[in-house]
Amino acid sequence: MRCEVRVPASSANLGPGFDVLAVALGRYLSARYEPDETIGELRVVVRPELHGGRNLVAEAMRYYASSTGRSLPGGTLTVDSDIPVARGLGSSAAAIVAGLVLANELCGEPLGRSELFRMACELEGHGDNVGAALFGGVVLAVVDEEGPQAVAVPVEFPLVAVVLVPDALGYTSDARAVLPRRVRRVTAVRTAAHTALLVLALATGQPDLLRTAMTDELHQPYRAVLYPHLEEAIDRALVAGAYGAALSGAGPSVLAFCSPERASAVQRAFADLLARRAMDGEALVLPIDRQGAQILRADERGPVSAPEAISSHHE
């Protein structure tokens, strides 16, 4: 039986929530598997642009099979994605979640979403992006005595994300390499306070708190060395009316939270920055995806329309 899954992009950290907070965004990776007994194994026929990286959908499917002791039916895997790769928008997390959910569906869904989340954390190394990709909305990833847990953070007011997506690539390994091995106690205390304020602002419908809550000094000041556009992008977004803004994941993308009414102004501010700096890239207005990974039935399939973007390209 043909099986298909669709998984959203995500933006992690949201400022101070380093490796623990993420939001699902309305761009998607889809993976379709068509069993074929004559093949006898998993065969990948279409892959998204991976910039030399691995196909994590197929790897996650094989990991699921080896971890659960189950056998996947032979067949053809087709992957399509409009999530920019290596831009800080959770492309790897979406691929991992897609592979696990797809394999679970092919095996008759023996595992619940919480078990799939723990498996995704093992592959990804942390739970922020995979939690948002799997469950949708804003997710707080924590670890307790039972292992990784994903806790939903309600968003109690209309909210959209405007994302500046440079064409230049950013790699998590590089973004982590510039971070200090130790932080001052005052930095840790302020980071904890801002993270708590961020969750409070979203859950209690106080968007005016986001400007302060999304301020970060744990990782962004160091990553600004890699991304010279970061501080200006945040400033321009705030001037244009965004509630708050931050580096998206490991970068180089920058995310701004704003009301639907201010989205166009913030998008224009990002587009102006691209033009002024002669940077190739685009400015996207993305909804918050509140459903997470979805199995698409035959009557639910259809093209996923990409949001309108303002682009800047220079020869």
TrEMBL record:
E.C. no: 2.7.1.39
Enzyme class: transferase
Binding-site residues for ATP, renumbered to this chain: P84, V85, A86, R87, G88, L89, G90, S91, S92, A93, A94
Keyword set, alphabetical order: Amino-acid biosynthesis, ATP-binding, Cytoplasm, Kinase, Nucleotide-binding, Threonine biosynthesis, Transferase
Function: Catalyzes the ATP-dependent phosphorylation of L-homoserine to L-homoserine phosphate.
GO biological process: threonine biosynthetic process
Key word ATP-binding present: yes
Protein name: Homoserine kinase
Sequence ranges assigned to domain GHMP kinase N-terminal in this UniProt record: 55-137
Family: Belongs to the GHMP kinase family. Homoserine kinase subfamily.
Cellular component GO terms, alphabetical: cytoplasm
Domain GHMP kinase C-terminal, residue spans: 201-272
Gene3D superfamilies: 3.30.230.10, GHMP kinase, C-terminal domain
